[in-house]
What does this fold into?
Amino acid sequence: MSAELVGVGASPGVRASHADRDRVVDALTVAAGDGRLTAEELDERVEAALTARTLGELSALTADLPAATGAPSAKDVVRIEQQGGSTSRGDGWVVPRRLEIESAWGDVTLDLTGAVITHDVLRIDLDMRGGTLRLVTPPGVVVDTDALVLGYAKIKSRPAGDSGTPVVLRVEIHGRMSYGRVVTGPRRRGLGLRKAPTP
It folds into this structure.
């Protein structure tokens, strides 16, 4: 259960968020309702969850419990195919192991700030002509474009916070970008992305 709750590939030393703590408390409550934890165990673990500082501390609280049936699972491969349109993925989307993008004269925005990260590497196979591939990256996400072939295209990267932050996700972009650009970096202040459903 712990891997599902905090994300496979997430470093145990990464600081826990309020949402991380809430997910663990919810899971402990369900486990107690199923008879897997006594009332005393529930109280102890909930108190520990609410004061946990890292994902590793939270994982330990659910390590002996079965995986939650409602937890999001990542697909191995997700494909985005469009012509002349725009696609975006926002808060809560589950990052797959591999993403295939085929786009002509349209934009694709992948906001990783509030994404559910279940692998430590995301490979993007890109076939894009015109438009912009934009990756919104929080601290802990690095983007590698060394394998990307550019044809009258450019890459614009902005650092996403402190370089000492542990790497949670490595994004490797392969393929070709023609007559467009790849933009990576943190979200600009005052700009928000609407939540977009995953396919």
Observations:
- Helices lie at 2-6, 18-33, 39-51, 55-62.
- The two ends are 25 Å apart (CA to CA).
- The chain has two domains: 2-62, 77-185.
